[in-house]
Amino acid sequence: MSSQGSREYVNRTVPHAYLDEIFHAPQAARYCDGDYKTYDPKLTTPPGLYTLSLLLYRILPGWLTGHSTCTDVSFLRGTNLVLLLLLPHLLHSFRAQIMKDKSQLPPAYTRHAMLDEAATRAPLEITPGAVGVSSEQEPDRRRPASHGAVPRPAPAQHPRGGWSGKLTLQEVLEASRLSEWLYTLSTWRVYEGHVIAFLPPLWFFGFLYYTDIGGVCFVLASSRAALSSRHVLAAWLGFVSLLFRQTNVIWLMFIMATSLLRLAQVDSDVGHSMSQTFYSLLRLVGGPGRQLALRIVAPYIPIFMLFVAFLLWNDLSIVLGDKSNHIATLHFAQLSYFLGFSLFFGWPAMLSQAGGPIALVHQTLRTLAGNARQVLITVILCGLTTAAIKYGTLAHPFLLADNRHYSFYVWRRIINRTRWSRYALVPFYVVSARCWIDALSRTQSDLWILGLCASTALTLIPSPLIEPRYFLVPYLLMRLHIPSGPPRSSQTQCRSACPREGGGEEREIREAPRARDEESRPVWGLLLEFAWYAVLNILTMYLFLHRPFKWPSEKGWQRFMW
């Protein structure tokens, strides 16, 4: 309801196409009129957004669209609102799938997920009182019940020392306390999905007619389908994402690669070194798992072939139109800006996964300078970041001339304020990198993290423009794959039979930290993240709607935006 109310307010205050909408809205109008041959040469992206708008107009009833015409700016903006309203459910489903009990383990939350796998596949050793069966009733419970006898469990009690027995999964789920916990976890995932979807640059563009919301949604939907081993669906959802932004082909490659990692179950061993993980993957692909690997790779091959054909047709350029202003470069400083973006929007999540400010400070200090090896890594990162800033900083003419974007002010007043100010930000970039890598390394292998870093670099470095919208996909993937809270200090021994892909030997999982307590889902962390996003969204929406200004060279009001 709040999103719908915000949409109505935006449409009343800004009823006409604004900024990039002046290119997107007329092109969508041509599609609505049946003109599929004329394409604006200023548009750099394929027609995925306009096709989706036309499709929604054809299938949605008039009372739902307000009986608007397909060419109305308010209706066209509603395309992104539909995606924005679906996004929290997609994010919730994504997070839930990671923890889902299935024999083929998902790629993330590896030790946490394997513990849940153990909890549902193997008999649990627990004290009787924890599930509503008293110690006195245990002998009667173990004896076969007579016909017509209805067992009456005692009220639930707190676990105590003493005898422990084995209960089936059904009996465990019938216990009121554990059922309540499962409901709480499900509710937590829903709340978490809504908070993540409230990310300010993402939420803001849900009320305008831009291509970014569609690209984000279909990339995440593709990754979600791949988590369920539905690779044909994942491949074609990835293809749809390319119709919104061509660089999403890199994320489709990442999705395919992590699916192979999941098949090998190498990313479930968080402690594996890079060489061990890579060797395990090669052994899988070159051994008995070759057929399974081909089943994963095959659906993606036609999509990549179509993309290569597009590059050949488009003179080896990834950009459709306005190529003179979107020339691929080596903009290495983009990675630094992304790290700054991730720290600015992600610090509540960092606090939450660490367990609080003090814990995060201690964790960061250990990561940066805990021993000689960590110090060396930190020094190398500082050197590489400084070199990237010195030799890979670009200032696009659009950045210098367009004061409607926040990036204009970040560049002038922070990054380029003085000759040395950009170098003063190096410690913040390095801290951001180490914090995020440290959080991801709790559940991901080194090879998974390397793949994420490489995909982010391939997506961002060629772009000459500094656009927060370009950072959305890598940030959301990082945010979705970090734990909700700190690891427990105590370890719960767990032994489970987790079959490998296609059968084979069983292996034991021991000493896996449980993620089932309230410490693993700190409410304060989620509330802090929501509050931070709410403040930013209220501020940016206020500036956009109520602080317009004039340009002598342009008609109408100009407005601040991401």
TrEMBL record:
Basic and acidic residues: bias regions: 502-514
Entry-linked Pfam families: DIE2_ALG10
Annotated membrane topology: Multi-pass membrane protein
Protein's cellular compartments: Endoplasmic reticulum membrane
Listed InterPro entries: Alg10
Region ranges (Disordered): 129-163, 486-514
Keywords per UniProt: Endoplasmic reticulum, Glycosyltransferase, Membrane, Transferase, Transmembrane, Transmembrane helix
Gene Ontology CC, one term: endoplasmic reticulum membrane
Family assignment from sequence similarity: Belongs to the ALG10 glucosyltransferase family.
Protein name: Dol-P-Glc:Glc(2)Man(9)GlcNAc(2)-PP-Dol alpha-1,2-glucosyltransferase
Originating organism: Ceraceosorus bombacis
